[in-house]
Amino acid sequence: MKKLLMVGGTMGVGKTTTCQMLKRRLPNSVFLDGDWCWDMHPFQPTDETRAMVVENSCFLLNQFLRCSAYEHVIFCWVMHEQQILETLLGGLQLEGCRVFAFSLLCRPDILAQRLQRDVASGLRSQGLIGRSLARLPLYERLDTQKVDVSHLTPEEAAARILAQL
Q: Among candidates 150, 148, 163, which has minimal Cα distance to 104?
């Protein structure tokens, strides 16, 4: 039976790096970052572009789920509302597939430190810090398995997720 891992979390919490670790540790795995489906300039988060990203993500995930080469399909995105997760899952062909949904959590002060390092390195904008911190409490409300990554390396976070599969 295939396994689909849905990994959510606010910006800067470590989703992409953790999922890269999962991809390396799980046999026959493929990884899609939802951000890759709207890597645009300028960034335009409108209703139209959000719908496009969900549609593109579902298309790619369905292709991966249908492909016999993959046993594990890993997807990450911000997914800060239950409806986002449900919309994505509603667009997927999940026959013969077990779904695991995770939310990566982090203490606000540690998240701010991580994001500030990214800002100082030119990887993120200063305004992102406030937006990310504002979304952080939303993950507690989701119907997902929670993984507090405040004091974990991405390898350790991946190990915690693997232990719950």
A: 148
DSSP 8-state secondary structure symbol assigned to residue 39 = -
Fold entry, domain 2-163: Rossmann fold (3.40.50)
CA distances from residue 25 to 3, 74, 99, 163 in whole angstroms, order as listed: 14, 12, 18, 12
Contacts 24+ apart (CB under 8 A), 64-67: 64/30, 64/32, 65/2, 65/4, 65/92, 65/93, 65/94, 65/97, 66/93, 67/30
pLDDT at residue 38 above 90? no
The H or E element that residue 3 is part of is strand 2-9
Q: Which residue has the higher pLDDT, 8 or 41?
A: 8
pLDDT at 21: 97
CB 65 within 8 A of CB 94: yes
Say what the pLDDT of residue 45 is: 87
Contact 8, 80 (CB under 8 A): yes
For residue 67 the two structure tokens come to: 């492909």
Cα angle 135, 6, 105 (rounded to 5 degrees) comes to: 35
pTM tops 0.85: yes
Nearest to 43 by CA among 138, 131, 147: 131
Q: Phi first, then psi: what are they for 148, rounded to 5°?
A: -80, 115
